[in-house]
Amino acid sequence: MEFRAIPPAAAAELQRESSRDGRRDVCIHGIFSDRLEQDLAPLRLRFGEGLAGSIERLGFKAKVGEKLTLQRLDGPLGGIVLVGLGAAPEQSVEGLRRAAAMAAKAAQECVPRQVTLDLQTGGFAAELALRSQVEAYRLALFRDQRFKSEADTTPLPELVSVAAATTDQALIERALSTCAGVELARELVAAPPNVVTPAFLAETARELAQSFGLTLKLLEREDCARLGMGAYLGVAACSDSPPKFIHLTYRPPGEVHRRLVLVGKGLTFDSGGYNLKVGNAQIELMKYDMGGCGAVLGAARGLAELKPSGVEVHFISATCENMISGAGLHPGDILTASNGRTIEVNNTDAEGRLTLADALVYASGLEPDALVDLATLTGACVVALGDELAGLWSPDDVLARQLLGSAKAAGEGLWRMPLRSSYKDGLKSQLADIKNTGPRAGGSITAALFLRDFVGQGIPWAHLDIAGPVWSDKGRATDPAGASGYGVRTLMDWVLSQAS
Fold first, then answer.
1. Which residues are recorded as binding Mn(2+) 1 (predicted)?
2. Which of 220, 292, 381, 394 gets the most CB atoms within 10 Å of its CB?
3. What is the pLDDT of residues 248-283, one digit of tens each?
4. Spatial distance between the Cα atoms of 84 and 86, rounded to a whole number of angstroms
């Protein structure tokens, strides 16, 4: 799929070109409900008075989420799609994304060679408007057909975005690199656990390193044992698939001004261990428990392609499975993490924080300027925030504001949650330094407090619990049903904002 941007004045000439070379194209126009006649006026001049009659007859009012497709059987123009934007004063970037996603799906029904997209973006910051449209359009058309015996081979059409304020191709390239990272994360998270194993994730990291000039350090079980990673290896002991500790590094050309570390939870399958997932736990979906790792690897792919200057980025994941075996973790076991902290395991289904504990200790040893972890960590966060928002915990106000700003710019829902220190009393153990779970109430808060114990003193740190938005049963505007690739866009925007 190709993408380019043109100024509004060039849109009419583009249609004339289509007429000359015989293409069947689709024109998509955003229409405001409070400017219906005004917005339709230039379309009448361009496509004829019959257009107005058709719109009136079909009752199009340009409400948010409303669309009207008018297919033509004659001439090169395959169709006209009108997308409702609602009232102009209420338009938002998120609304722009939803409109672009809806437009993409509507245009695809016409099977065009080229799509001209004009969503009236003059009221938005130029860079954000163009990026948002391109990302939403491409991500809405994502198709994962790897495991289908009969794939849909219909080519996706070229997108020509009518950009009111900028046609900078570099912005489009940034958006496409971001989309490539999101698509990698989606494919990793969606794939079945007999495909995406710890070894598969390690091989993916190796391919990224070779393709994009990253450095890969891969720690095997014996390497992790020498580093004292007892918490991580305690979880990994349950599986016949050996653990793989992934450490990818992007180093920019020239001087480094900031060192950032991204840590992703990498449980390729979570049975719950002896605290087996039962009832409505949807154990078959526990393949997405490596969504944090998927986001981190997706961000690595996108950032390595863009090559930001001045910022060194480390991508880390302690990958393994949480299974059941005679050699596996018992409820009541005591593990020793690599910083010497002892952990009483009162729930084997709270395994992700055990793997993250050693990953955070390792990451802290890199002495980063900021450290962010992402994890499908708790069901409690989903209960609190639903499936459209991730939770953010951080004792650092500056880092929290940066991440919230990047999430907003990227179109990913993120909400800051309290890190209430008094709740840590629920993690007290009679035998060890800490338990791995506290009481049911405030479960996502105590999970974040547990992780904080393994972050080096003075390091700005944030924890993102992405258990809700990493997966959607029915799909959302830009996301298909299934894996969303959540986190890639926020991470990339944040890292790029730190570049010099």
1. 270, 349, 351
2. 292
3. 999 999 999 999 999 999 999 999 999 999 877 789
4. 6
Which of these, 261, 253, 371, 257, lies nearest to 307 by C-alpha position? 253
Residue 152 maps to a domain: no
Range of the domain at 480: 176-498
Question: 157's torsion region: left (phi>0), alpha (psi -120 to 50) or beta?
Answer: beta
Return the bridge partners of 135, or none.
none
What region, left, alpha or beta, does residue 462 occupy, with left being phi > 0 and alpha being psi -120 to 50 degrees?
beta
Q: Does residue 46 sit within a domain?
A: yes
End-to-end C-alpha distance for the chain, whole angstroms = 31
In a domain, 151, yes or no: no
- CATH number of the domain that residue 313 is part of: 3.40.630.10
DSSP letter (8 states) at residue 22? T
Residue numbering of the annotated binding site: 265, 270, 289, 349, 351
In 3D space, the residue among 353, 210, 159, 203 whose CA is nearest the CA of residue 270 turns out to be: 353
Q: What is the CATH number of the domain that holds 81?
A: 3.40.220.10
Q: Is 11 helix (H, G, I), strand (E, B) or coil?
A: helix
Note the pLDDT tens digit of each residue in 88-120.
888 888 888 999 998 888 877 777 778 888 887
Q: Which amino acid is at 133?
A: Q
Which residues are known binding-site members for Mn(2+)?
265, 270, 289, 349, 351
How many residues comprise the chain? Answer: 500
Active site residues: 277, 353
CA atoms in the 13 A half-sphere facing the CB of 32: 14
Mean pLDDT along residues 159-187: 85
Structurally, the chain folds into a number of domains equal to 2
pTM for this one?
0.93
> Is the CB of residue 158 less than 8 Å from the CB of residue 114?
yes
Percent helix, strand, coil in the chain, to 5, is 40, 20, 40
Residue-by-residue DSSP string for 403-459 = HHHHHHHHT-EEEE----GGGGGGG--SSSSEES---STTHHHHHHHHHHTTSPTT-
Q: How many whole angstroms separate alpha carbon 145 and alpha carbon 55? A: 37
CA–CA dist 403, 405 (Å, integer) = 5
